[in-house]
Write a structure and sequence with these properties.
Distance between the termini: 44 Å
Strand content: 15-25%
Strand order of the largest sheet: 14-18-13-17-15-16
Number of strands: 23
Largest sheet: 6 strands, mixed
CATH class of the largest domain: Alpha Beta
Shape: globular
Oligomer: single chain
Structural class: alpha+beta
Length: 445
């Protein structure tokens, strides 16, 4: 009996110790390293730590309240009103009001907003438009419409309502402190330090030495990270890599744009550049969301490309690529494909917005296909409401969009991160971005 009692006590002690190790702790500084800018759209790490939107997507991709507790439409989606959450304050103590929200939203998109007017009426923020806005609540969950007190949304001095507030930026490290009065509740970590412009290789070395807690894992390096036994979390394929084409000059000819679409070798991008991560696509929406992605052919057809080009004198087209080294390599591979079809392409520096062709990433958010499609079109500068609901109607709408060859889908990619042993409850949001507000540290340093 004594032996059984001793064993029971040992097992109970082990269970209590394990529970203590996994129970969230308050305190400590979370060290994060990234290769880019923490404020960049759409997945800048700092953006959703500092700012909130009127709406948000929950972990399952469903639309849920954030700074707005409810919303309703009338006049057949031409008017929406959003009721603000009471008692919310910005980091500097300023109260969240409908006037502040309307001012922030008015500056977030300038003259190219998905609404014609936004105004404050008491606790309500009201949007009106001559065109229907069936997916406005979902659009407002995107990173572009996060609410900043100054309306700048560029970090630094702009105040938000999020779980962390900016305290400084020195020597390439953005410092954030817990917002003790956050409407969502206080985050577990006391502070987050985000080291920026850090190459992925150096991030992984810092993770191994304990100098970093969370680092990036690009899609093309997910398999390598798993082989190195890193603790990796990754999203479904929710980032669309697509080629965006202008419609001026030689590209005003639809046949030339169609030739470019036929000349691109998606399989080479998927197999070589992105190391078989994600999935090849010729559709704006992924198969898991639409159910019809497989109907769009993804195979390269060089003969068709050459026939469509015919005797067209395209001159030399320019191409730029947003993003990391993998995106640059992908753009170079596409340029080679086009040269093989007789279309000459010259690469220009990343971020050049007036290039003839731009290789871009688009975020696929939420689980509503119509709203996700409208978000992609919005990001591509094509302001068009998507009201179709059935798969058949959405397929027809997307086919019409793609037959214009202004945007050419190529690959859907996942987003990934790795964490150190002291990090608990690290999760990704529905758009693949890091959710650090709920993460905690097992020990404090």
């Amino acid at each position: 009996m004594f032996r059984r009692l001793a064993i029971s006590l040992l097992l109970a002690g082990a269970a209590l110790d394990a529970g203590a190790r996994t129970r969230p702790h308050y305190g400590g500084t979370l060290h994060v390293e990234i290769a880019g800018d923490p404020w960049e759209r759409p997945t800048g790490v700092a953006r959703r730590l500092v700012y909130d939107g009127l709406t948000q997507f929950d972990a399952g991709g469903a639309l849920s309240p954030a700074l707005a507790v409810g919303w309703e439409q009338d006049n057949n989606f031409h008017r929406w009103q959003f009721r603000l959450r009471l008692g919310v304050r910005f980091h500097d103590g300023t109260a969240l009001t409908s006037a502040v929200v309307a001012a922030s939203l008015a500056t977030s998109c300038g003259s190219a907003c998905p609404w014609d007017a936004v105004k404050a009426v008491g606790p309500l923020v009201i949007f009106t438009s001559d065109n229907p806005m069936p997916n406005l609540p979902a659009l407002l969950a995107s990173d572009q419409f996060l609410i900043a007190l100054t309306g700048t949304g560029n970090g630094g001095t702009a105040a938000g309502t999020g779980p962390f507030q900016v305290t400084g930026f020195n020597n390439g490290v953005l410092s954030l402190a817990a917002n003790e009065n956050c409407w969502l509740g206080r985050p577990f970590a006391d502070a987050i330090e985000i080291r920026v412009r850090r190459p992925v290789r150096d991030q992984w070395l810092d993770l191994g030495s304990g100098h970093a807690d969370v680092v990036e894992v690009p899609a093309e390096q997910l398999r390598q990270a798993q082989q190195q036994r890193l603790s990796v979390i990754s999203s479904p394929p929710i980032t669309l890599v697509a080629l965006e084409l202008g419609d001026a000059g030689a590209l005003a000819n639809t046949n030339l744009r169609a030739a470019i679409a036929a000349a691109v070798d998606r399989s080479a991008l998927y197999n070589v550049i992105f190391q078989k991560q994600g999935e090849v696509t010729a559709s704006l929406l992924p198969q898991r969301m639409s159910g019809y992605s497989f109907l769009f052919p993804t195979e390269r057809d060089l003969n068709k490309a050459q026939a469509l080009r015919g005797g067209l004198a395209a001159g030399t087209l320019t191409m730029s690529a947003d993003g990391d080294a993998a995106m640059q390599l992908a753009a170079q591979r596409i340029a080679l494909n086009l040269r093989e079809s007789g279309i000459n392409v010259q690469m220009v520096p990343a971020g050049v917005r007036h290039a003839d062709l731009m290789l871009r990433r688009f975020t696929i958010s939420g689980n509503d296909p119509a709203a996700a499609l409208e978000r992609i079109l919005w990001d591509a500068g094509q302001l068009a409401a998507v009201s179709e609901q059935s798969s058949a109607d959405l397929y027809k709408r997307e086919r019409t969009i793609l037959e214009n060859y202004r945007i050419i889908p190529l690959v859907d990619l996942p987003l990934g991160y790795a964490s150190g042993p002291r990090v608990r409850d690290l999760r990704l949001r529905a758009d693949g971005s890091l959710d650090l507000a709920g993460a905690s540290l097992e020990d404090v340093r």
